[in-house]
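Table 4 source record.
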Amino acid sequence: MEKLIAFIEKGKPFFNAIARNKYLKAIRDGFISVMPIIIVSSIFLLVSAVPNVWGFYWPAEINDVLMKAYNYSMGIVGICAAATTAKHFCDAQNRDLPKNNQINFISVMIASLIGFLLLSSDAISFTDNGVSISGLANGYMGSKGLLTAFICAFATGIIYKFFIKRNITIKMPEQVPPNISQTFKDIIPFGVCLLFFWGFDSAFRNLFGFCFAQGVIQVFQPLFSAADGYLGLAIIYGAMSLFWFVGVHGPSIIEPAISAALISNLELNMAMYQAGEHATAVLTKPLQDFVVAMGGTGATLVICFMFAFLAKSKEMRAVGRASAVPVCFGVNEPFLFGAPMVLNPIFFIPFIFAPIANIWITKFFIDVLGMNGFMFSLPWTTPAPVGIAMGLGLQPLAFLLIPALLIVDFLIYFPFFKVYDREKCAEEAEADQAEVAQRAAQKQAAMNAAFQGKADTASVATGAVAQAAASMAAEKKRAAGQPMDEESAGNTTPAASDNAVASASSSTIAAASDPYAALNGRRVLVLCQGGGTSGLLANALAKAAREHGIDLETAADAYGSHLDIMPDFDLVILAPQAASYFDDLKADGERMGVACCVTRGKQYIDLTRDGEASLAFVAQQLGL
């Protein structure tokens, strides 16, 4: 097992390079940016569709009002993704350009959006009561157009960089205001993008007879179908867990490749359900968040509670109980690094196969028992059992699926848990024996010191009497006005000297009483992959600062959405699961004049649990 892990670790630099790839990162960050649209629109869908499970149907007028909010948000998620992905890709492109010659991300977003509309929408026109009406068909503006949105974002960013890097722009005199100069600077790359998409769209439609977005879906549909099978699901989520096991954030590598399927299948399930058909798509975003990652990557919800309440090891109980609350909300890094699960050979097999078992069980419920697939999306921090029940629309079978998953996860993890518990108990017993021996040695040393002290008592007392006599003699001479010898004079200085030392000591103590005072007015930003783990350290810092009466401002965010706020902070701390991005973060920090650092697994968890240590860490990173 250790040889296998060592072999996988050799590929870690390669996996980190994939995670840092600017195309994959732009897809991931652009996808994350549109998640609020997906989640909020699902609320209207929940209100509209969930009552149908229990035989209640809203009147058509009310249902139309509810679905309008859904269609005008989820129905244009492709347009939004074209803009957000272009923005994040532009940020990556700007990292390679001089500070005084950056790409205007707003112009890039607009150009990408227009390109997407050209490639994904059809013009429609009709007459209603003698009035001619024209518009755009929105069939591919939603989740079906996500792949096209990504392509448009990349094409736009590449075109802009080509022209901006070579200064092929319209240049205005220095007297012209910067905002006006920027407008003219964007004209050439914007115009080239428009001509490119327009020409490509015209050629594609003339050649195939339909829009590019439809063609993309037709090309990738076989892959989506294969990914929805037992083998495809096992490969996707087994790889995701495997990457995490060796310390690489698996979703950063896997999710960009399947993000379009995760959302389009969700919408497909709802369309089939509303049409009275069986919603059969398995691969969806809520399935990944609540079934595969039940309690976080590795399906760690059950094993965390096993640590907390079934372990005989004191250390395991402490780790489990400290991590239980975050794990309930899908934030399992405290457990992954505290247990540890990452790079722990004992848990290699269950960590990989528990998520696979969970998704296979869910697919069995859908394919064999007739349960509808996930149709509603909720925030990924929703506790897994709640997310499963709500995501499946409160179907009766959902309430059978939840205990089935928990029981199977328990059975998979339990044998490995017992092995690790015995191992940790043996370590603790050995440590206790060593501590007993150390205490005995300390006790013996103390007894020896006591006997030695008794032997020296007489000489110490004699010296004290002699010192007292000399002091009295010196005092008498001073009272009589007689001159004092050197030795007597020396006996009069300690009091003054002691006062000076005491004064110096007092000032030193006063200065040391608030060792973190230099952190006053500082601002610290903590970044992780999704914004959940980063909140643990940000909260620990804020709490410790309040206890010291320090005005230290802290914030937590997800890596990828930090560039706009990063200049407002003095220090940016990168959580361990996002460590592969540190080189890029450091480059951004040097460009903006912001200090940056990265933490490692257990170090980060220790900092979240020790406020004093977290303050000291920040002070050290800022050179205070």
